[in-house]
Please model this.
Amino acid sequence: MKHSSKERPIGGDRVSELMKRELSAFETAHPRSKEIRDRADQSLLSGVPMNWMTRWPGAFPVVFDRASGNSIADVDGNEMIDFCLGDTGAMTGHSPPATVAAASARMAKGITTMLPSEDALPLGREMVRRFGLSHWQFSLSASDANRFSIRLCREVTGRDKVLVFNHCYHGSVDETVAMLKDGEPSFRVGNIGPPVPIAETTRVVEFNDFEGLERALAHGDVACVIAEPALTNIGIVLPDPGFLDHLRRLTRESGTVLIIDETHTFCCGPGGYTAAYGLEPDMITIGKPIAGGIPTGAYGMTDDMAARVLEHTVWEAADVGGVGGTLAGNALSMAAARATLEHVLTEDAFEHMIAMAERFEDGVQSVIDQHGLAWTVTRLGCRVEYMLGAERPRSGAQAAAAFDPRLDALLHLWMLNRGILMTPFHMMALMCPATSEADVDEHTRVLGEAAVALNA
Ligand SMILES: Cc1ncc(COP(=O)(O)O)c(C=O)c1O
Model:
């Protein structure tokens, strides 16, 4: 593609030069994090409690000391404005007081017992009110909610396969760690120990591919489509007009269950994308922020789906059938989720968060315009992403092709060194109830400085 002089690509040499400078500044500012990381190698695989924590840019991960609202302080005393928010796990802001109070009260009175607690009832009612589906179950994560939902779909349809969109992410769920390669389902790069060849379990279609979707469902062997209504894990890819209606119509016609994964698109409002745009899924899955960061996932279903699930349940084996978990539905999760939905992620909170995201989007757009960058910015509710390509992508493949890992790493480190934490792996920002105009404007200012340095 030819770029106008206003939209010239950023040179690799300049990126390398700036990266060297930023790495050095990072090391100087984080001696205690480095010391901890050096000792952590002795007991933790790769020196971190979870392998992907090594993927932050910088020679070692920043170790955090405390987080509150949208602010994080690390062990070296550096303060950061947090737009990562635990990759949505802390979309409530860190340690929201109402959640902490309810969880603390609950913890003093028993955390997990295998018996239901009273909080589950108002929580269930609130999930019904927000998302419009009539029956809910709880898990410990969104990954589990997805895993269990897929199993239920297989069971009630008697079909084998799951359909996902290219470059989706639905957590650590075997069937979904897939992508398209030469038009065929393939293991996603980095898929660890897959149990069976992916084509046995999964069909993969490009997002916004109307005909491809029709062809894939015509086989009549797909138990469920599991989809984010807009892709959020390869940058943000919005649905083309009519694509989600097409998806609903084809799934209905082919007897395929439609699962909408709202784990990230909850950013669109109190009832997620589903309520904001009037979707009619058979099932919804969610997790991450619904209990303010205390591990909780949920999956909901329509009356019809609930009846089919009950019909297929072998009650004597309900504890060993592959759906569930000893700690799932525990009293702590229920209390935290109830308080979070009743007092933290409220209608008013979303109004503020979305207004902050609009300001963030405007700020990024002004930097793009002012400096002639070949980038785009996309907003989805209170989530904003800037993508390092001149065209807004319409599919996962297009978004992946535009990705520039070196520039992405540099921008993350540039931000981090100036007190701004962006979601790792792509340039995504999320707003929480505590995000202020001043925080958003600070990001715009720092991005403007990055643009000047890159264009120099
Ligand atoms: C859309 C979506 N669904 C599910 C998950 C899995 O969430 P968890 O890792 O909390 O199980 C993720 C994680 O990023 C996600 O983005």
Observations:
- The pocket of pyridoxal-5'-phosphate is lined by residues 87, 141-143, 146, 169-171, 228, 233, 261, 263-264, 287-288 (CB under 6 Å).
- The first strand starts at residue 64 and ends at 68.
- Confidence is low (pLDDT under 50) at residues 1-6.
- The longest helix spans residues 347-371.
